């Protein structure tokens, strides 16, 4: 096997990679040592800014396989044939922690999927929970700030979180899930995933259907006891990352069944609840799951940075036959995610191999840092133009399919829908005594040290969900509620 020659980034061979150029054996170091300067300058820039949320995560490559015909709902190519396979990438993550934080934190898990379809890349950026804490993207920076560090102490502060939740009762459904026995998954393989938002599918006749995406683990549900999770946070903070990598490495490929709930536009108009409110679920009795297929994760990245850290997911990546919805949180994410990638990785982030589509692509984007392709070559950089071989629009309405709008432009109070309690109440009633006790204990532990006025305010909400729920937490905190 022939030896590879060490070169600089420009391809020129390097004769000595052990010693800096100095003025004599004792120095000083000379600034014209371009190998030293390049080496140190590159090292200084090896860390791109971490994700503001979902910074700690793991990913793997896989394959999505269609098992049922859903062409009545969509003409997207990846669904057009039973048995069809599409390459994909999955990334799992915690939400609030930094890159060095523990995999076993009590936190929702990001569940992001990228499908490399024949018509472009399609991303579903969801979580392991079917709902979220807030309804409107204008509150997202506020919510995330409560999950980060207190500006004065630079410490995590549960008082910020409970202050925000006590004043944002739409979060109670997600809070109940987060502090339940499913709040700390035992690794990434043993949890369900959800698109969480309402999305849409569009068929060949231009008929749109609203859908919710569900990914059901075929490994079974497994969760960690809080005490065990705390031990692992100290002994093996990369517990879930290690578990996923080792399982795939030894050929134990994890799988998830893919399902949708479907709702017609007419049903949505007349539904008792806002079907585009991400703090609420659709009843599976009224809107049962329909099987679509499954995906299997069967290949680990060769290089974590190139294939996971640089992986860029965004709900703005839609393809013909798929689409968005009026969900306020989703619409905010359509801008925010792609914009975060432009900041984090660079304006040409979609040209990186892990993000580039597998199908041919052509556009009028030009220039910018880290341009990886031919930058359009000698073709025009404006449109419309009269060049025969320049890219032209399709004139099809997909995937930005027309949406009926109504009402005057303005800022509408989303809290006019004050039903914060019925869905978490239904979830609480489904729990057995042991699950209720664990939920109440977890919440009480999280509230230790929080100001009395905040506790009284938030406990009043839990009592409205269910008196047993609120009073149970109050009892553990030695608080007497009226």
Automatic annotation (TrEMBL):
* InterPro entries per UniProt: Catalase (IPR018028), Catalase_3 (IPR040333), Catalase_AS (IPR024708), Catalase_clade1/3 (IPR024711), Catalase_core (IPR011614), Catalase_haem_BS (IPR002226), Catalase_immune_responsive (IPR010582), Catalase_sf (IPR020835)
Question: Which Gene Ontology molecular function entries are recorded, alphabetically?
Answer: catalase activity; heme binding; metal ion binding
The record's Gene Ontology cellular component field reads: cytoplasm
Q: Give the Polar residues compositional bias ranges.
A: 382-395
Q: Where does heme bind?
A: 337
Q: Which domain of life is it from?
A: Bacteria
> What's one GO BP annotation on this UniProt entry?
hydrogen peroxide catabolic process
Note one Pfam family from the annotation. Catalase-rel
Query: Region Disordered: what ranges?
Result: 1-26, 369-395
Q: What is this protein called?
A: Catalase
């Amino acid at each position: 096997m022939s030896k590879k020659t060490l070169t600089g980034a420009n391809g020129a061979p390097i004769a000595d990679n052990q010693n800096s150029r100095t003025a004599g054996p004792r120095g000083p170091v000379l600034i014209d040592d371009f190998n030293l300067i390049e080496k140190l300058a590159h090292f200084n820039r090896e860390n791109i800014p971490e994700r503001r949320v979902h910074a700690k995560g793991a990913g793997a490559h896989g394959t999505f396989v269609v098992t049922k015909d859903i062409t009545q709902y969509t003409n997207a190519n990846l669904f057009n044939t039973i048995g069809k396979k599409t390459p994909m990438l999955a990334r799992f993550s915690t939400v609030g922690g930094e890159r060095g934080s523990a995999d076993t934190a009590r936190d929702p898990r990001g569940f992001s999927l990228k499908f490399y379809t024949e018509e472009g890349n399609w991303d579903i950026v969801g979580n392991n929970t079917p709902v979220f804490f807030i309804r409107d993207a204008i509150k997202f920076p506020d919510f995330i700030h409560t999950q980060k560090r207190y500006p004065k102490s630079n410490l995590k502060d549960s008082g910020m979180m409970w202050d925000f939740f006590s004043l944002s009762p739409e979060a109670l459904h997600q809070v109940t899930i987060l502090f339940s026995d499913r709040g700390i998954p035992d690794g990434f393989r043993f949890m369900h995933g959800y698109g969480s938002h309402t999305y849409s599918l569009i068929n060949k006749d231009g008929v749109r259907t609203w859908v919710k995406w569900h990914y059901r683990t075929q490994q079974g549900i497994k969760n960690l006891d809080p005490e065990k999770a705390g031990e692992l946070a100290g002994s093996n903070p990369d517990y879930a990352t290690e578990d996923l990598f080792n399982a795939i490495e030894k050929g134990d490929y994890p799988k998830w069944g893919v399902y949708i709930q479907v709702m017609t536009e007419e049903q949505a108009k007349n539904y008792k609840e806002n079907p585009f409110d991400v703090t609420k679920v659709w009843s599976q009795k009224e809107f049962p799951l329909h099987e679509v297929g499954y995906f299997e994760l069967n290949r680990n990245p060769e290089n974590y940075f190139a294939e996971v850290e640089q992986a860029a997911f965004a709900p703005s990546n839609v393809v013909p036959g798929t689409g968005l919805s009026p969900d306020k949180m989703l619409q905010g994410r359509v801008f925010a995610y792609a914009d975060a990638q432009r900041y984090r990785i660079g304006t040409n982030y979609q040209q990186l191999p892990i993000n580039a589509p597998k199908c041919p692509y052509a556009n009028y984007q030009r220039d910018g840092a880290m341009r990886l392709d031919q930058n359009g070559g000698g073709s025009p950089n404006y449109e419309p133009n009269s060049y025969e071989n320049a890219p032209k629009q399709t004139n099809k309405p997909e995937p930005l399919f027309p949406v009926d709008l109504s009402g005057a432009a303005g800022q509408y109070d989303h809290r006019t829908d004050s039903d914060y309690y019925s869905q978490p109440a239904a979830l609480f009633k489904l729990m057995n005594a042991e699950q209720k006790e664990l939920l109440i204990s977890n919440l009480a532990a999280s509230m230790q040290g929080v100001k009395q006025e905040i506790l009284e305010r938030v406990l009043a909400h839990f009592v409205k969900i269910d008196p047993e729920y609120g009073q149970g937490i109050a009892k553990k905190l030695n608080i007497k509620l009226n």
